[in-house]
Design goal:
It contains nine helices and no strands. The chain is mostly helical and 211 residues long.
Length: 211
């Protein structure tokens, strides 16, 4: 990753896969009855938790793959499939079961701390986001590379915080239809990224088998 366009692509990928606009209806439902201060506090904790999880994955993802003996090419293909499944659900304006099952959604209403579960994980920092960060992290080894990726994560974190803090206003402004349109557009972007991951993963696996 030597060009700025690669890091902008990473930013777009993480933003699309987390889809903070798609989390707004869930956030509003789970914080029903909260005061404005309590909603803002939950939004802040969710954002901080997301940044912490993603930075941890950025630093520990590659060593974990090596520990389990998983090649990056196979992880690209597998991660691409997960991202593509999420994208298909987003194009249909639905929360992917890869992110959250119906049982988890029902159980979320009983949890005291919704900032960590289910808002941070699995809805925001889910398998798709983790796969994206690990794949991009492996494309460089310099400190600058990791700092730029971390900067992209921080930018997405700020976007998440703004979306959740302004959730009632955004929901009223866009309405369900507007948020569905945004989700579908992000789904299309995510589908292209997922297909690219899958293609590159299989190409690298086939190239490795020929040597």
């Amino acid at each position: 990753m030597n060009e700025w366009t690669d890091y902008l692509k990473f930013l777009a990928a993480v933003f699309s896969v987390t889809n903070p606009f798609g989390v707004i209806p869930v956030f509003i439902t789970l914080t029903a009855g909260y005061s404005k201060q309590e909603r803002h506090s939950t939004a802040r904790r969710t954002s901080l938790a997301f940044a912490s999880v993603m930075i941890l994955i950025l630093l520990a993802g590659d060593p974990l793959l090596k520990f389990f003996g998983i090649t990056v090419s196979s992880f690209k293909a597998g991660g691409g499939i997960i991202i593509l499944l999420m994208a298909i659900s987003m194009v249909h304006a639905k929360v992917s079961r890869v992110k959250q099952t119906e049982e988890e959604a029902e159980d979320a209403t009983d949890k005291a701390s919704i900032a960590i579960v289910p808002l941070c994980t699995p809805l925001l920092a889910g398998p798709g986001a983790m796969s994206t960060v690990i794949v991009y992290a492996h494309q460089g080894s310099s400190m600058t590379h990791f700092l730029l990726l971390a900067g992209g994560i921080i930018v997405v974190t700020l976007c998440i915080w703004l979306c959740l803090t302004s959730a009632p206003f955004i929901a009223k402004l866009l309405g369900r239809t507007g948020m569905n349109v945004v989700t579908r557009i992000m789904g299309l972007v995510l589908a292209a990224i997922g297909v690219e991951f899958i293609a590159h993963g299989f190409m690298e696996m086939f190239a490795g088998s020929l040597h």
